[in-house]
Amino acid sequence: MRLHMSLLAGVLTMTVNSISAQTIDRTKPPETPPLPAYHLPPVYETKLPNGLSVVLLQDARFPLVTVRLAFDAGSRFDPAGLRGLAEAAGALLTEGTKSRTSRQIAEQAASIGGSVNAHDSPDSLIISASSLSEHARKLLDLVADVARNATFPADEVKLYQENRTQHLIEQRSQSEFLADEKLDEVLFGSNPYGHTHPTPESIRKLDIPALVHFRDTYLVPNNAVLIVLGDLPARADLLKMLTEQFGDWRKHAVPPVPMPPIPAARKSLTLVDRPGSVQADVHIGHLGVTRASPDYFPLSVGSTVLGGGTSSRLFNEIREKQGYAYSVYSHHMALKDAGVFGAAMQVRNEVMGPALSSMLTELGGMAKAPVTASELSDVKNYLSGTFVLRLQTQDGIASQLAIVKTMGLPVDYLEKYTTRIRSVEPDQIQSAAKKIIAPDESAIVVVGDAKQIGPALEKFGKVEVTQEKK
Amino acid sequence: MRKFCLPLAASAALLLHGADMKIPFEKYTLKNGMKVILSQDRAAPVVTVYMLYNVGSRSEEKGRTGFAHLFEHMMFQGSANAPKGVHFKTVEANGGSLNGSTHPDFTDYFETLPSNKLAVGLWLESDRMRSLAITAPNLANQKEAVKEERRLTFDNRPYNTAIVDVWPQLAFQNWQSSHSLIGSFEDLNAASVEDVTKFFKTYYAPNNAILCIVGDIQIPEAKKWIEAYFGDIPSQPQPHHPDLSEPGKFTPRTEVYKDPLAGVPAVIIGWPGPSRRSADYNALVMLDALLSGGDSSRFSLDLVKGKKSVISYESNPGWPFASASDYKDPSLYATNLLHNPKFTGKEIVGQVQDEIAKIQNEGVDIKELERARTFLRATRIKDLQSALTRATLLAQYEMFDGNPELIVSELDTFLAVTPEQIQAVAKKYLVPEKRIVLEIVPAPKEKK
């Protein structure tokens, strides 16, 4: 392992002090220099004539190559009657092409020390692949084949349908999944952002023509970005390989992104009855913002102060002080054309009422008063520091670059991330909190035993009870 | 912190991989007996401070199940100079992340920080080793947190009760190994401040700990700091480690667990494994890679695809924990398979045993083995990108094997295993006569 090329150039020289047990003061945390600035290694961007965006980053720390091929083709592109189509297309891309069987794809990937698979998110379908760097050419050949030539063999589609049906049963036996599923529905209504999972019916209805249509409509070069990073071949050789593999891939127009209206935020309280539950899963949600919104960075900082770590308000109040929950947090997620802010906890049935009261009070508190100077400075450090920790691995860098490219952001977004976090002011957080975090118009979804927790919930407003899906 | 390395979150297989890598490190012992491993690595401006204690749930006494884990919670409740809340706040305010976890044979704690913040991690770890605040209110609060964790992770989730409470009872006969890691509510309630104090003094002494630091550090400076922060923490008598050996003659066994929370059936199959680092152990690691490593493994190609019976699976030496280091000897090789309800658990067991029989009878194709070797090597390189992984392995290999160098050299040992050795180990260990089976069957909820 050769660890020269510094990913984060020019960082940190430590002053060497002479220290001994006599000279250090153990009663106080040691004084250390401020966090270093982050510098992204140079990113090379180009575009093939067929519209395929290409992003290359040389990272020779480890003898590996990592690839992401990302399409604007996530679950939001699923037709209304065929939820889970993007997910199915992703899963089945690697189950057979014009020239390779599913078995050959799996064996060839393993024999170059790698893997190739594809997953969907609400906005994107992303093929992720990696191998030992000496096999970069073979890896690109595999990625191009599954992206361009997937055939969706009938027996593989049938097996997918059977196993996905069972997997959905397994997912729905978990109360967190039920809570997420319901909250998305409540927040987004019939907008496809509200339906990121298939249903038993949509899995049954899945067929080869639908998969082929999806592939031919969305998996085209002008709708994709290819990210290649790691210990790469020489630039000219690599570009030649890319042209060989992807150059004659035909482009064609992609239909406009479906974006039916999202219902306005409104207060609601939904109880998903899960008889026998010893805990209640509480998820509170509100529509959030995109990464382009001026509220994005204030909301990132605010949501972290509220429930982003082990020194957050929710953790301290609900877990450490009250002992109501083991897990309690808040977070926000930006989609390409929307966002979600959420807070969640799992509490035992007996404390349902007081725990929900506490959580609502904490959410409201973010709008009532500005965060303190120490909360602000701690969270800025936390977000800046852990951002760099995530970039230790090739997968970490690839994932961040994929977010940047699929969200339509400039590549220097990563380099400027910590600066933007640091420039957030308390009044911006409070203003974002009034719109998004304060629970006046939030949706509350609780999954639990209605008999046990129903009465406690009724004190918070009109409860709509639904049955758990199986 | 606060979490087991959750069985269902365990990655499918493999502790292996590496070759042509160099991971320089330096190992020494402080006067109080604390072992130190330092590894400088400039790949990223981060540092991991990893603290490993030689105590786990298999160190517990009867009537005190769940104690090691409850104690792990107490380690985040404050110390003389870093009172309650300060540990979390200090790590996060310095841009770092942290956690701790309890395993059968060890308990660990870490902070990963920007590399110029090394002293912060040392200050925190030394302060709680020196002066943990064991108070009645802290203990009462953490008992509640652990109970909540139990409700969340076990009592309200499918499979986990079967995996963590039922499986060890079936798999092991020695109480030290067979009791629940998270413990019973009764035992948690019974834990007193005196118990916790005694446990701390016995097991959280410097001579029962290994400190491993990996990252962009200056070695001489790190050594000075370590001496300054840890050097004068007094050592304690070496703790007694209980006898973990399995008594008597092995009898194969099968049990059915009805899980009211599960919607899809699963089956766990285990076999007592060879002793750690023996030639058979190395061969078993390769056998596992062939059976379950990646999409081109036999379970994947023959059972998920061929028989269309298994939906997903995970297996490794040390399962249901994530790695072979989770158990000292004795350990098990086990696999957990979620399967299509069209098949019975018994049929799945038969299919898995047939896969093993193919290797027992026909041996291993060299091409297939070569592919598994490449897969292992690449997987290990990927894992070693993270400073935390490197620190974890260096420290654990020191504690379990007395040899951190294994972080690199074990891969060569695995890659040198021959097809004949794999066939032999399959015949010797993975046979029906030495098998333990737990079928997990979805059951209707009880009417209240």
In brief:
Chain A is α+β, with helices and mostly antiparallel strands and 470 residues long. Chain A has 16 helices and 12 strands. The radius of gyration of chain A is 24 Å and the shape is globular.
Approximately how much helix is present in the residues of chain A?
40-55%
From the alpha carbons, calculate the radius of gyration of chain B and give it in angstroms. Answer: 22 Å
How many β-strands of chain A, per DSSP? 12
Largest sheet of chain A: 6 strands, mixed
Q: How would you state the average pLDDT of chain B, rounded? A: 91
CATH classification class of the largest domain in chain A: Alpha Beta
From the spread of the alpha carbons, the general shape of chain A counts as globular
Largest β sheet strand count, sense and barrel closure of chain B: 7 strands, mixed
For the largest sheet of chain A, list the strands in their spatial order.
1-2-6-3-5-4
CATH architecture of the largest domain in chain A: 2-Layer Sandwich
Number of discrete domains of chain A: 2
Assembly context of the chains: heterodimer
In terms of DSSP E residues, the strand content of chain A is 15-25%
